[in-house]
Amino acid sequence: MDHRTLGRTGVHVSPLCLGAMMFGAWGEPDHDASIRIIHRALDAGINFIDTADVYARGESEEIVGEALAGGRRDDVVLATKFHGTMGDDPNQAGNSRRWIFREVEASLRRLNTDWIDLYQVHRWDPWTDHDETLGALSDLVTQGKVRYIGSSTYPAAQIVKAQWVARERGHQRFVCEQPPYSILARGIETDVLPTCREYGMGVIPWSPLAGGWLSGRWRKGAEDLTSRRSAMLPQRYDLSIPENQAKLDAADALGQLADEAGIPLIHLALAFVIRHPAVTAAIIGPRTLEQLEGQLGAADVELDDALLDRIDEIVAPGRTINPTDAGWANPALEAAQRRR
């Protein structure tokens, strides 16, 4: 598997990154089964693993730590994230210095490692100053506990602001961004991706299969148009919502296009994401070994301009069919913030 440089770091990573969200109670509860998936991914040439403290409340990190024990840690670019709620205490979440210093120690312990290659802020926190967050993360780099820092699902304006604060305050800067990106959710093409290119940031998109919509199962006439996430996220799957019906129309058209091209829809979807010049690696999140095997070949798929034009006809560049799939809501537009 070919490798790409993560932004301007000089670190080389595979174009597919193994996402670990499905390892543990959120997906595959059998640790041994999850470890087999991780080892198969490493054997296939993937050297990039992404997890987060909040995935199954730390269980995912523990499984990744188990899988990398016994000499495999040094060969893996290991990424994790903080921000999500990890307990009942209101301070067990967010982007404050207090929480960052506490939670990094917990992640290091669960991952069974002395350092984290890429420590990412899972979401922008409008109540915490960039200066505080970047200052704390810079101290972790100085201490050797973290090698690089990144952001996830940041609006373009906050990516720019964080870069400015890092320069003005002399902090470490975010070397990459982790946004949602798929053929059905192309909104970041308008601002986030150009911004990342301007600042030399790597991009490691999550949900390149649009939460399973591009797995091949979501086709018109299919007997079962549900998924494990349907009940948890009805706003993204309920077909009574017009935007989701439009997603089904697009997914079906893309499935037909993939059939015509002789390419599995999963490969088409992943190849589309990793082909963008701003993208470093697409995060895949298999729950089973079979799902992993079905995604590995995407790294070798080439999409020509004619096929890309056909994709653009189905979902126009810069369009996110269901705004909920953008991954974040602007607090300035929430009702409580707009009254006065």
Defining traits:
340 residues; alpha/beta; TIM Barrel; two-stranded antiparallel ribbon; 12 helices; 10 strands; globular
Task: Give your account of this protein's structure.
Helix 1 crosses helix 2 (59-68), helix 4 (130-143) packs across helix 5 (156-169) and helix 8 (242-261) packs antiparallel against helix 11. The radius of gyration is 19 Å and the shape is globular. It has 12 helices and 10 strands. The chain has helices spanning 31-43, 59-68, 97-111, 130-143, 156-169, 192-198, 234-237, 242-261, 265-275, 289-296, 305-314, 335-338; strands at residues 4-5, 12-13, 16-19, 48-50, 77-82, 116-121, 146-152, 174-178, 202-203, 282-284. It has one domain (4-338): NADP-dependent oxidoreductase domain (TIM Barrel, Alpha-Beta Barrel), CATH 3.20.20.100. It has 340 residues and is of the alpha/beta class.
Quick structural gist:
Helix content is 38%, strand content 12%. The chain has 340 residues and is of the alpha/beta class. It has one domain: TIM Barrel (Alpha-Beta Barrel).
Give the helix tally: 12
CATH superfamily: NADP-dependent oxidoreductase domain
Shape: globular
| SSE order | EEEHEHEHEHEHEHEHHHEHHH
Largest sheet: spatial strand order = 9-8-7-6-5-4-3-10
Q: What share of the residues does DSSP label as strand, in percent?
A: 5-15%
Overall CATH class = Alpha Beta
- Note the gap between the termini: 54 Å
| Rg from alpha-carbon coordinates | 19 Å
Helix content: 25-40%
Total number of domains: 1
Indicate the structural class.
Answer: alpha/beta
* Oligomeric state as shown: single chain
And the CATH topology?
Answer: TIM Barrel
The count of β-strands is 10
